[in-house]
Amino acid sequence: MKVVIFCGGFGLRMRSGVDSAPKPMMTIGDRPVLWHVMRYYAHFGHTEFILCLGFGGSAVKEYFLRYEETVSNDFVMTKGGQRIELLDSDISEWKITFVDTGIDTSIGERLRRVRPYLEDDDVFLANYGDVLTDAPMDKIVDHVISSDVTASLLAVPPQASFHVVEFGTDSRVTGLRSAADLNVWINGGYFVIKKEIFDVLNEGEDLVGDAFPRLSAVGKLEAIPHHGFWAPMDTLKERSQLEELYRSGKKPWALWAHENRRSNGQLSTEPVVVAL
Fold it and tell me: Where is the Nucleotidyl transferase domain (predicted)?
């Protein structure tokens, strides 16, 4: 199943200067957050990606064109470095389509512009490219396929760092509550979408702001509640928190790493030579 990733935004809250990398290329550990999102999907067997590029698209292309498997995989070096045998591989089975969808393009229009690459797909996945989760995507996909909805979104509680302020007509504060304690949900940025979405998504429109309300009005949009791990990377503070999790070795979104530990890191049956 193909995965459409919207990675063409400016990410202004993450940028420290005009030369900063685009937000999807901001790193967690040794890899960009975009890689972590893609690796999450690959864990569930979804290895065909369509990247909707915009601002900083050349940086995304360059990264994958010069991809170094040895950065995140164990390997055996022989002949003084002339031969590298990988013990595992990240992207050797991935198929990535890079599509320039414009600089100031809405999410919905980016999706419309990659429609030709989805013509043979009844269902596809989509993601903002800057949010991480441990949600069971295999179960979510199975559920949506068997239902009559056109699309689903992952619904998550709001971040605890926000507080709701309660006050009266005299502006005196009567209460403060963490947003996470309220019975509200926000869009988590992980979508399962059927091809019928293009019947309600018009040129130049937004996916969530325009098409989804139309689906909601006819009962064709479903929220998938998730109480597990979910974290965005919209700000430098959020990136720092993810870095701390990464350094601690927890990495709750890295389901593939958990699987690797359970399989005891078995050697691939055929050597993969990546350097000469």
Answer: 2-230
Is the alpha carbon torsion for 42, 43, 46, 52 positive or negative? Answer: negative
Q: Do the Cβ atoms of 131 and 189 come closer than 8 Å?
A: yes
Percent over 70 (pLDDT), the chain: 88
**Per-residue model confidence (pLDDT) at position 54:** 92
Task: Count CA atoms closer than 13 A to 119's CA, side-chain side.
Answer: 3
pLDDT at 162: 77
91, 49 in Cβ contact below 8 A? no
Taking the CA atoms of residue 146, residue 209, residue 41 and residue 33 in that order, the dihedral angle to the nearest 10 degrees is -170
Strand partners of residue 6: 52
Give the C-alpha separation, 44 to 258, whole Å: 13
Closest CA to 108 of 200, 236, 218: 200
Q: What is the mean pLDDT of residues 233-237?
A: 87
Q: Is the pLDDT of residue 126 over 70?
A: yes
The residue length of the chain stands at 276
Name the H helices within 147-232: 212-217
Question: 241 near 120, Cβ under 8 Å?
Answer: no
Element (H, E) at 51: strand 48-53
Euclidean distance between CA atoms 95 and 47, whole angstroms = 6
Tokens of 135: 């949600």
Ramachandran sector of residue 134 (left: φ over 0; alpha: ψ -120 to 50; beta: rest): alpha
Containing H/E element for 83?
strand 83-86
